[in-house]
Amino acid sequence: MSWYERLGVRRVINADARLTRLGGSIMPPEVIAAMAEAAQWYVDLVELQRAVGRRLADLTRNEAAYVTAGAAAGLTLATLACVTGPDPASIARLRAQFPDLEGYKDQVVIQAAHRIPYDPAIRLAGVQLVQIGNALATDPWELESALSERTAAVVYVAGAHLARGAPPLEEVVAVAHAHDVPVIVDAAAQLPPAENLWRFTRDLGADLAIFSGGKDLAGPQSTGLIVGRADLIEAIALHGPPYQQLGRPFKVSREELIGLLVAVERYLTLDHEARVRACEDTVAAWIADFSRIPGVRATRAFPNEAGQPLPRLVLEIDPSCCGMTARELRDRLWEGDPRIAVALHDEHRISLTAETLEPGEAEVVAERIRTILRTTQH
Ligand SMILES: *Cc1c(COP(=O)(O)O)cnc(C)c1O
């Protein structure tokens, strides 16, 4: 009997997304094996952090890299690094006077279109957010006029699903750099494509880019990867554990450090085209299957909800024919055993994701949906 069963916790088939509340992703066996191996020795944590960081920098074609406790923690640490720089005295002084930022740059500029539920992680560094533009667009002059001696950084949230009216990263970088202000990219869910590991920083000029370790990378759920400028990565390391500075709560174990390294190594060897084809096949099979159910309209959507270049299935539910709304279908799937997690696309539609499913689960999901609809259809 598994620990989950002993505790009475139901298994979830995840056809929703790489969500923290569902566990993020499933670590492949080589990641788990590497973590088990890492658990057997004590090491000097700083020595290990630096060695893993160097290796990750090489793998991701960046100047430097750092493993932190999730992408949200990465936003806090990256902001702290931009506030103080790598000077140990400045880092210690900030710790002593926090949350008073007197004498430090205390503002971070962000576009309204980039306000996401994770942005309190930026304010956790003690800074104020200065919002520019509106939900749909930002004019380049708005960025220009928001920058001042108080600006520690500009945070840019990457993703094809976000407002098109936000200026592209290259433009934001050009304006920010003209004022000597660094740009932090929140790219937490922007894998695939794997090339994004170097695109935002090396190719588009951002100073730091942050990725979740526990989303598509399938590393430890509680890790995040920060890549970019060596001096800022150094500042991040000095704020973070094991040092007793402001970043001390964001602890990463030696097992997690090794686990994320192995996950990134693996990710760079995956056949991503084959992965996309497999997702396309699953979506096509679902469409063929669901098209036979009266009152259900199945279509392919692209890119997915996180702006990744992966297809997903959207199911429109006609309540007069199906005897239930999309929301009720979503709830019924969640209440079963195992639970099946799908996304509520809007009040009429649910969406299903293929890339989060384990082998054989796509059929289980389809069968459960057919069964639920068969019993309610009139
Ligand atoms: C998932 C996500 C985060 C948080 O990442 P964690 O690794 O769970 O901390 C931050 N920003 C964006 C845009 C995300 O999608």
Describe the fold and architecture.
The chain is an alpha/beta fold. The protein has 2 domains: 3-21 and 271-376, Aspartate Aminotransferase, domain 1, CATH 3.90.1150.180; 42-267, 3-Layer(aba) Sandwich (Aspartate Aminotransferase, domain 2), CATH 3.40.640. It is 41% helix and 17% strand. It has a 7-stranded mixed β-sheet, sandwiched between helices. α8 links the parallel β5 and β6. α2 packs antiparallel against α11. The longest helix is centred in the last third of the chain and has 19 residues, at 272-290. It starts with a helix and ends with a helix. Residues 20, 70-72, 116, 118, 157, 186, 188-189, 212, 214, 224 line the site of pyridoxal-5'-phosphate (PLP).
In brief:
The protein has about 375 residues and is of the alpha/beta class. It has 15 helices and 13 strands.
Features:
378 residues; alpha/beta; Aspartate Aminotransferase, domain 1; Aspartate Aminotransferase, domain 2; seven-stranded mixed sheet; 15 helices; 13 strands; binds pyridoxal-5'-phosphate
Q: Fill in the CATH topology of the largest domain.
A: Aspartate Aminotransferase, domain 2
For the sheet with most strands, the description reads: 7 strands, mixed
By DSSP, the count of extended strands is 13
The average pLDDT value, as a whole number, equals 96
**Shape summary:** globular
Give the helices and strands as they follow along the chain: HEHHEHHEHEHEHEHEEHHHEEHHEEEH
Amino- and carboxy-terminal Cα gap: 41 Å
| Number of H- or I-type helical stretches | 15
